[in-house]
Structure formats: C-alpha cells, structure tokens
Amino acid sequence: MSDRRVLQIQQISGHPGPVPGRNTQRSDQVAKLIDTTTCIGCKACEVACVEWNDMPFQPTTFDNTYQTMPSTSWNYWNLIKFNEVQRDDGTLAWLMRKDQCMHCADPGCLRACPADGAIVQYANGIVDFQQENCIGCQFCVSGCPFNIPKFNQATKKVYKCTLCSDRVGQGLEPACIKSCPTGCLHFGTKEDMKMLAETRSKQLQANGFKNAGVYDPESVGGTHVMYVLHDATNPEAYGGLPSNPTIPLSYTVWKNLFKPVGLFMSMLGLVGVVLHYVTQGPKRSHPQPPIKQVLGGNGHEAPVLRDKTDIPQYRKEI
Q1: Residue 117 near residue 12 (C-beta atoms within 8 A)
Q2: What pLDDT, on a 0 to 100 scale, did the predictor assign at position 10?
Q3: Are residues 271 and 178 in the same domain?
Q4: Nearest CA-CA partner of 100 in 46, 166, 156
Q5: Is 67 part of any domain?
Q6: What global pTM score does this model have?
Q7: In the prediction, which pLDDT does 121 show?
Q8: Among 47, 64, 110, 157, which residue's Cβ finds the most Cβ atoms within 10 Å?
Q9: Do the domain assignments include residue 243?
Q10: Cβ 37 vs Cβ 149: under 8 Å
Q11: CA pseudo-torsion sign 40, 71, 201, 182
C-alpha cells in the first residue's frame, strides 16, 4: 500500500460521488518499460518482488520449463514466462517475458469492482488494491483482460502487483527495477519510457527484426507497463499476451447502463413513497367493534363467542 499523502487519487472503485482531492496537484504519468530482447531470465525481479512485499513462502512447481510456477498467484505477483517458438525457417526462439499487472489507463478491474475504495487509480497511473475495503466478490478477476488479480481463499481478498506504489510514493523506483542486472527494466515518466521504447524498436528493426515494436495497447487506453517485443505482430507468442485486450462488455454495460438506470428507478420508487404519504397519509389501524355481553337464562352473563372455535363441540370436531 502507498502513502496516500503523497499519491493523488484519480479514480475510486464503487465510489458514488466525486473523488476527494482530484486534480488538485500536477502529477507525471509513470511507466515501467520491459525490454524482452535483453531479458536473460535470471528471475532477480521475482526475488526482489517477494522480498520487498514480504510475501509468505510458496513452493515452486516444476512444469517441464524454467518457469518458477505456471502462473502468478495471490502471493507471487511477478513471474518470468519462458516460451519456445518455432520461426519460419525452422529454428527455435526462446522468448522470455516478465508477467505482472499492466496498470491499464482504463482498468477493467476498477470498472468491475462494486466495493467503494477497494481499487484506486492514482494520478500517476498506478492501479492499487486496498485489501481492507475488498469484499471478495472477485468481479475484478473477471474484469481484467490480462488475468492478473488472484484470490486468496484464506483471507477472501484479491491481490496483485502494486507497481511498488509505496516506493514510488517516496520517490523510489520499484524493487524489481532495482534488481535487474541487464538493464532490461526501466522506470520513469510514460513519455520518456515511450520514447526509449521507440528508439530501441528502431535499433532492432535495423538489425534484422523487422517486426520489432512496442506493446502499449490502445484498447485499454494504453498501459503503464510496456514491452519491447522482437515481433510486435504476434504478442501471443510471449506467454499469451493478448493482441487486443478489451474489458468484457458485460461490465461495461452494467456500469454505464444498468447501474445508472437502477439508481434512477430506486429514486423514482422513493419519490412514489413520499407522494403516497403526502396524499394518502400514513396507514392507521382501525379499532375492533365493541363486544356485546348477553345475559343468560339465570341472569348471569353468557360467555361471548368470538368465533366457532370457542364452541366445545366444534373444537372436538377439529
């Protein structure tokens, strides 16, 4: 978690009103650049992430690859994916990619989340989870086009990479950037990282990688984690990186259509209740009619029969 006194909040999940302090300070958009062409798969970034975030121990899983485990988990936010791809000439390419949260400019997890304050997006572009506000509905898991948020069955909370928002809030770079030995990872403003990525892509194109390019998908408004790829036309080869990530239509329709309509209908219902109270008044209970006492033949009052069940014979038949 980050220092909220330093990072200004831009969006809040499930928040009905305006965001406090929004646009009161200028903040540069930050980004992480991952150059897959210089990654050697040393996994130093994995260790740094676990150490800095004080993750509990998790046994690794051997899946006939050099990957630490098949996918990220609630206590393993950063994973180097190893992929063997056959080229057109029959040779093999060993592609390595650092898999983590992409920190989308238009985050699907935040759109889908109904809990107020469970997910926040800061003005610098970082998307952060606040577990104390999480209700464990897992809508964010389904709303993410990159399959990043992971659910913890024990705590009933969802976790993901925070881009070390606590470090960034204090002017430091993320822990994984600090640990990279080859210069594969870079961190700075989005504008500077985009410029650096374009320069690197041109270098690769000049050296025989004609399809080299930058992965920064516009379908989610761009991301604050970008890649330089040998072949930007086939991002799926890098461990299932989607070529056109999109937020599920169901969440877009729910938030932009059904939710406002539902709130409007609720307001109409409240107005109807008030109008009924004003025009008809409150509902009052009517008193029961008085019960007449009947004198018996001996001059004494006969018992009053309220219904047929007071008759002994009728009670026996029942």
Answers
A1: yes
A2: 86
A3: no
A4: 46
A5: yes
A6: 0.78
A7: 95
A8: 110
A9: yes
A10: no
A11: negative
- Give every CB contact of residue 25 below 8 A, 6+ residues apart in sequence: 8, 123
What gap in Å lies between CA 225 and CA 245, rounded to an integer? 14
Spans of the chain, pLDDT less than 50: 1-5, 314-318
Strand partners, 12: 120
The SS3 call for residue 82 is: strand
Give me the DSSP letters along 290-303.
PPPPEE-TTSSEEP
210 and 224 fall within a common domain: yes
Take residue 163 and report the two structure tokens written for it: 């881009």
**Rounded to whole angstroms, what are the CA distances from 239 to 23, 60, 69, 187?**
37, 18, 13, 23
What is the bridge-based pairing of β-strands 30-35 and 225-229?
Answer: parallel
DSSP state of 287: P
Residue 134 burial (CB count, 10 A): 23
Question: For residues 219, 41, 101 and 32, what is the CA-based torsion angle, rounded to 10 degrees?
Answer: -70
239 and 259 belong to one structural domain: no
Structure token pair of residue 87? 């080229």
* Residue 146 phi, psi (nearest 5): -105, 0
d(Cα 24, Cα 202) in Å, to the nearest integer? 38
Q: Report the DSSP pairing between strands 185-189 and 213-215.
A: unpaired
With vertex at residue 146, the alpha carbon angle to CA 190 and CA 184, rounded to the nearest 5 degrees, is 45
User: Which of 155, 157, 165 has its CA nearest to residue 138?
Assistant: 157
- Containing domain of residue 125, as a range? 9-247
